[in-house]
Each structure stands twice: as C-alpha cells, then as structure tokens.
C-alpha cells in the first residue's frame, strides 16, 4: 500500500450535487449504444433495423480484432442504425422488450477465476461487449486485446465536479467487484492497481483491501482521482509500454458477467446539476434514454445542456441516451449570448479561480454554473495557471503549443504519451486565453498515434 497527497488541482464549487440516496428507475422503453463514445472504434455492423436481439447479443464489432463485440444492453428489436458524416456510426437504437432474454456465457466463480486461463477470460469479456469499457494508455483509446498490458489501473476515487458517491456504486456489488478484480489479474503479468481515497473511514470494505490488487491511497483536489494522474505517480508509462484502465463500474460488470453468466447492464449514475430537481443516485439500464431517466425531474422552462459525465470532461449528449461508460448525468443551463459588461461587475455570484471577482472572499460558497465562456479566444499567454492545476511533472502550456505547431518530437519529449484530455480538463476552466485545451490535446494524441508511432 502506498499513499500520495497531491496539492495541485482545484475543486470546482458548483451547485447541484446528488443526494446520497439510491433509487431504482422503471425499465426504459428504448436504449442505444453510441459509437461516438468509443474513441478508436472501427465498427462493422452485425445487425440491421428490424432484427431481434437478446441482452448480450452483438450489435457491431471492432474491425481487425476477433470477437471484439459491442453488445445490446437489453433484449428487443433494433429500431435504427444512425450514421453521420462519412458514415460514422452514431447510434444503434433498440426498442426494449418488457423483460430480458439473455445470451448465455460461462459462469465462473470468483475463486475459480484464479485457476482459469487468460485466454478463456479474455475471450468471454470480448464476446460479452464489456471489453469496450477497457481503455489503453497511451492515447486513451479502445484497448487492443492482442497487446498484453504492463499493468491495469482502476480508480475508485471520484473527484470530478458533483461526482457520484462510490459507496453507492459498490453497494450490493462487493462480490462482483472482487470477481472483476480476480478476472483482471489474469489479464496482465503485472499488477492490478486500485486507487482509493486515503483516510476515509466509511469507505466500502470492498475497496479497502481487495485480494489480487495493489491498493494506493490518494488525497487532494481534482484531478487526484483521475486514473491518468494516478498512473503518473504510481508507475509512469515508458516508451513502448501499454497499460489498461477501467472504472469501478466496469470492474463490477465484468465480475457479474462471470458470476451470473450473463451481461448485467444495470448501473448506478448520479443525476446532477442545478437544472435537475430531485437529484439522486439512480439505478438505470446502460444506454437508457435521457427522457426516461429525467422524466419529471428537469426544469422545463430553461434551455439546457445534457452532459454525459461532469461539466469539465463530460460529453454533450446529442442523441439523448446515457453513455455506457458514464456514472453521471449533468444538466446545466445553456447560454447563447454574452453577459453585457459582465467583466466590470463585482461578481459576488461567480466562481473565480484567479480572484478576478470578490467571490474569492467566500471560499466555502457554491455557485451556479452555465455553458458561458465569458469571452472568446485570444492570445495564448503563459500565466502559470495551467501548472497550478495539473499535479504532474509536465509543462502543459509548452505541450499544447507544440501540438498546435504539429511538432511530434517535442510533443513526445513534453509528455504527450502520459496524458489524456480529462487530465488537463481544469486547464480549460482556468485558461485566460480561452483555448480549447482538451480538444487540442485529443487532436494531438490522434495525430501522434497516426504519424509518430
């Protein structure tokens, strides 16, 4: 066990956190698998509109890899396969049956998993569709099952704005979590590393001392809970190395796959954001429609933005379905016009990282946030703000400028292989130049992956 106390970072003081209560929502009438959330996806369709599917039936697969399926969360009928520009897969929509019929998989107990071969475990995860929740570093893209990872990392320390309560995610899933850890331990010759919040006495027992995993205690402001930050401090990625990362919910899903012999698509998400009434943690089916999840909870008199994830690194939901890898739905007001003369006002009701407004005199106060940028892009200057919110041995301003210049050698030297967009999400918030840092970093990672390797 190791402990890390990080000082750099910032906890966004935003209103709209979810109550620490858990509610089970009614079964959705429609679900969807969104191809846009899987970075690095090259899909080959296996169904068409009108086809009947079971829970766990393949909808499409990753080209160039055997049995790497993406499966239906429910049984029902495929309603539509939506594509965008250049035939990019957007959504596969399924009308859900009243009850599920499941594809059958081999049931293996948590103990027996330790005596099961890597090949058997990996093949079952691939066929179940759950391997789509495994990301590879560097690049933060879908993992290649043919490449064995040096280590596997799981973060159960959730520090993002309005983050869900990890104990509610683990509640009733302790055995499945341990089974998932056991399965993952067979997929690497290295270690399964679990990051948790240090010093928290009420943390779920499933996280404190799991078998077949190394536990690391982290404390500090966001992004201390990001898996990329934890990798940097535990065992940084060297050139030509690959590690895999998963969320705690993905580990639970893998555990349930082996314990129950079927794909269990139920998950816990937090309904957050000031524009949602009755904010709670809810049990939903993966891919459920936002309309079903937020029915009777949204303030209908506002122009709203729905975000799969948190306000810093989440993805705007354009199709209206919950992402398969998210544990949070955030709804905030959508602002389409500038605030007149906003920069000259005292700003008592506006959060300010740089002490621009008098709100810095109230360090414990929470504030309303919206989608406003408070200005347009301007000269990219170095202020030291980026460095103060990135707890890594990194020069983020120099890295972003090298990405803009397309300098592959400089990108590598400045550590592009160690970061993912979410690790620099706070740079977007504190940037006085209004640079789209995460978007720039993602383009740089894709460019390096294509040209530099």
Summarize the structure.
A hairpin with a 6-residue loop joins β18 (304-308) and β19 (315-316). The longest helix is centred in the last third of the chain and has 15 residues, at 437-451.
Q: Could you characterize what this model shows?
A:
The structure is a single chain. This protein starts with a strand and ends with a helix. The strands form 4 sheets. It has a 7-stranded mixed beta sheet with strand order 1-14-13-12-15-10-11. Helices cover 23% and strands 20% of the residues. Among the domains are: 2-27 and 102-260, no CATH class; 373-451, no CATH class. It is globular, with a radius of gyration of 22 Å. A hairpin with a 3-residue loop joins strand 10 and strand 11 (141-142). The chain has 453 residues and is an alpha/beta fold.
Q: What gross morphology would you assign? A: globular
Alpha carbon gyration radius: 22 Å
Strand % is 15-25%
Which structural class is indicated by helix and strand composition?
alpha/beta
Uncertain regions spanning at least 5 consecutive residues: none
Mean pLDDT: 93
Number of strands: 20
Mind summarizing the main beta sheet? 7 strands, mixed
Number of helices: 13
Strand line-up in the sheet with most strands: 1-14-13-12-15-10-11
Strand and helix layout:
Blueprint: E1 2-5, E2 22-24, E3 30-34, E4 43-45, E5 52-53, E6 58-62, E7 69-71, E8 76-83, E9 89-96, H1 110-113, H2 118-128, E10 135-137, E11 141-142, E12 152-155, H3 166-170, H4 174-185, E13 192-197, H5 205-208, E14 214-219, H6 227-234, E15 243-247, H7 248-260, E16 266-272, E17 281-285, H8 290-293, E18 304-308, E19 315-316, E20 328-333, H9 385-388, H10 396-405, H11 408-413, H12 425-430, H13 437-451
Parallel strand pairs: 1-14, 2-17, 12-13, 12-15, 13-14, 16-20
Antiparallel strand pairs: 3-9, 4-6, 5-8, 6-7, 8-9, 10-11, 10-15, 16-17, 18-19, 18-20
């Amino acid at each position: 066990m190791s402990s890390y106390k990080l000082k750099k970072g910032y906890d966004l003081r935003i209103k709209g956190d979810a109550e620490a209560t858990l509610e089970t929502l009614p079964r959705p009438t429609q679900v969807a698998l969104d191809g846009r959330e899987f970075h690095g996806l090259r899909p080959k369709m296996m169904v068409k509109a009108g086809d009947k599917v079971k829970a766990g039936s393949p909808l499409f697969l990753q080209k160039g890899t055997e049995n790497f399926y993406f499966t239906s969360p429910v049984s029902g009928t495929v309603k539509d396969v939506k594509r965008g520009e250049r035939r990019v897969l957007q959504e596969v929509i399924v009308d859900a049956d009243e009850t599920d019929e499941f594809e059958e998989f081999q049931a293996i107990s948590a103990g027996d998993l330790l005596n099961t071969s890597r090949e058997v475990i990996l093949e079952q995860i691939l066929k179940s569709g759950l391997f789509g929740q495994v990301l590879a570093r560097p690049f933060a893209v879908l993992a290649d099952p043919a490449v064995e990872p040096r280590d596997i990392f799981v973060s159960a320390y959730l520090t993002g704005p309005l983050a869900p309560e990890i104990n509610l995610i683990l509640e009733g899933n302790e055995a499945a979590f341990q089974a998932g850890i056991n399965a993952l331990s067979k997929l690497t010759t290295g270690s399964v590393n679990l990051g948790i919040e240090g010093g928290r006495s009420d943390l779920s027992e499933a996280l404190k001392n799991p078998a077949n995993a190394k536990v690391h205690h982290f404390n500090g402001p966001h992004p201390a809970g990001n898996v990329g930050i934890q990798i940097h401090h535990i065992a940084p990625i060297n050139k030509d190395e690959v590690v895999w990362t998963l969320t705690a919910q993905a580990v639970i899903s893998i555990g349930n796959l082996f314990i129950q012999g079927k794909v269990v698509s139920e998950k816990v998400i937090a309904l957050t954001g000031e524009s949602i009434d009755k904010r709670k943690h809810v049990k939903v089916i993966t891919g459920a429609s936002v309309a079903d999840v937020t029915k009777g909870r949204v303030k209908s008199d506002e122009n709203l933005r729905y975000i799969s994830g948190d306000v810093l690194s989440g993805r705007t939901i354009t199709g209206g379905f919950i992402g398969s890898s998210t544990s949070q739905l955030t709804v905030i007001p959508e602002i389409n016009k500038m605030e007149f003369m906003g920069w000259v006002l005292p700003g008592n009701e506006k959060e300010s990282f740089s002490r621009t407004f008098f709100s810095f005199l109230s360090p414990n106060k929470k504030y309303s946030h919206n989608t406003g940028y408070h200005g347009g892009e301007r000269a990219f200057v170095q202020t030291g703000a980026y460095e103060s919110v990135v707890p890594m041995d990194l020069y983020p301003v120099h890295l972003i400028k090298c990405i803009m210049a397309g300098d592959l050698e400089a990108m590598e030297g400045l550590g592009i292989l160690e970061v993912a967009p979410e690790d620099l999400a706070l740079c977007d918030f504190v940037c006085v130049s209004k640079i789209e840092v995460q978007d720039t970093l993602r383009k740089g990672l894709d460019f390096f992956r294509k040209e530099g390797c």
